[in-house]
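Feature request, filed as a ticket because there's no other form

It would be nice if the structure record came with a short human-readable summary line next to the tokens. Right now we just get the raw output. Example of a typical job, pasted below so the devs can see what we mean:
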Amino acid sequence: MKPTITVFTPTYNRAHLLHMCYESLKNQTIKDFCWLIIDDGSTDETKLLVESWIRESNDFEIKYSFKKNGGLHTGYNLAIEIMDTELCICIDSDDYMPDNAIEKILKLWEKEKDVKFAGIIGLDFNTKNEIIGEPLPDVKDVDLNELMITKKLVGDKKIVMRTELYKKVAPMPTLNNEKNFNPNYMNVLIGEDYRFLVLNENLCFVEYLEEGMTKNIFNQYVDSPNSFAQIRILYMNLKKSSLLFKVKNAIHYTSSCIIAKKYKHIITKSPNKLLTALMFPFGCLLTMYIRYNIHYKR
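Raw output as currently delivered:
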């Protein structure tokens, strides 16, 4: 019988950490899931390790697929192409699930599922068992994009998605061979037409270091500016975007175009040309700030 949910894990050279995710899946109170590992071109022992787990007598299916290295979003693309379960959830290679996470997801979905819901939004916890950010609103379901626009979505959250909806918006593009196209792009696209059930419970333990995350995002801005410009275009186009939200993203969009040296695109590709023109000086300042943090604050 086909499982209800796929846990998919894009990974790159994480053989030394992947066992934490595996052990957490072995401990799940409900085994109605498949684990799909997308190996993004690892050069370590990942393949041999996963093959040894497949040979073990597990009461859940493990699938493994190797691909050329291309970044997290290409791992998502391949996983979405392969998956055939009703639901899916991404658990990163250095993260792991509480023992009852799958059970909580499936019980809520069985009780409340409806075509108007894209899936479920739950919580991430750090390894000290503390919520990352803040809990979700105490309601049955939410508009994910509205929460993002109004800054009521504080801290990383875990998305459980109807697989068919990912298949409708995938694959994500790879722009100029960049490897940092944010997979949240798909969640935002889907969030324009669907709501998400709220599960104010821990669905994933995450190794979370605020300082490291901040430094990493600056590097990503420089490494993948075309990809960041693309998601800023999407943000400016959202149906419920406020003026303040559009201003912020116009500034970031301008900065990404400058870093990518796509100066003509700043106006021609912007969905809010006048606003982008007005925010151009601030985009230049943001670019200077990003480069300062990369080159002088290491």
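Something like this underneath would help us a lot:
Residues 273-295 form the longest helix (23 residues).
The beta strands are 5-11, 33-39, 61-66, 87-90, 117-126, 141-142, 157-162, 195-206.
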